[in-house]
Amino acid sequence: MAARSVIALVSVADVVAGDLADHLDRRGHDVREARQPWEAESLLSAGGIDVVIVGDSVSQAEGRDLLRRYGGGQSVDGKAGPDFILICRPADLVDKVLALELGAADVVESPLNVRELAARIGGLLTRRGRSAQELIVLENATVDLRSAIVMHRSGAEEQLSPGQVALLRLFLASPRKVLTRDDIIAAAPAENADAFDRSIDSRIVRLRRKLDTETIITIRGAGYRFDPPTQRVD
Question: Residue 128 needs a FRET pair 20 to 30 A away by CA distance; which of 8, 12, 82, 200 works?
Fold first, then answer.
């Protein structure tokens, strides 16, 4: 199993830090916090950090100092330094430009959306070869298969059970192919001993409901088929 990526939160406001840490932890990341810039010194000096989020309570001078010393591709103990995301106030255009010129990977304005910030972190981890996501986009939701989380367009999230993940992976591996009940029982068995023929129908109904999707189609007398959603072009 790949090592968990490590995200450091430096002086991020408590209300945001709590939500963000929970959001990232459920997606397979380790989160470490430093409430003050001086606490971040020992955390970043030790190395092993993939992404650093610097809160807007840090002075711009302190934030830029951390960025100069540990970011921008600098090396810590022979390893590439972390990517930095700085949180700034909307009026701080000059400081935003300076941060980017110094090598910040991203600058976001407060107030911020935790889910958007997590997506930006995920993008940086992907470029570092440390992605912990396996995303499937459906009509009304996005599924992170590795963390077994369904992210609805409304912002709500639901957890998939191991059996539901196995069932969804089976459909994803066989797009537009009719799978019989026997195929499903063999490749994605139920999570208990009640894997009778009719229980497959119930499992499909529950999965459809949780994913809010019409892509899993019942083929009467034959089984079920997954038709990947057509991507909309705006």
Answer: 12
Question: What is d(CA 146, CA 26) in angstroms, rounded to the nearest whole number?
Answer: 10
Q: pTM of this prediction?
A: 0.67
* Beta sheet of 6-10, edge-to-edge order: 30-34, 6-10, 51-54, 83-88, 106-109
CA–CA separation, 143 and 169 (whole Å): 11
Are 11 and 104 in a shared domain? yes
Check whether residue 72 and residue 148 sit in a common domain.
no
Q: What is the pLDDT of residues 160-193, one digit of tens each?
A: 998 899 999 999 999 999 999 889 888 877 665 4
Q: From CA 164, how far away is CA 9, in angstroms rounded? A: 33
Task: Using the 3D structure, point to which of 90, 108, 132 is the last residue of a domain.
Answer: 132
Q: Write out the DSSP string of 152-213.
A: ETTS-EEEPPHHHHHHHHHHHHSBT-EE-HHHHHHHS--SSS---HHHHHHHHHHHHHHHT-
Find the mean pLDDT for residues 32-38.
87
> Is position 1 within any domain?
no
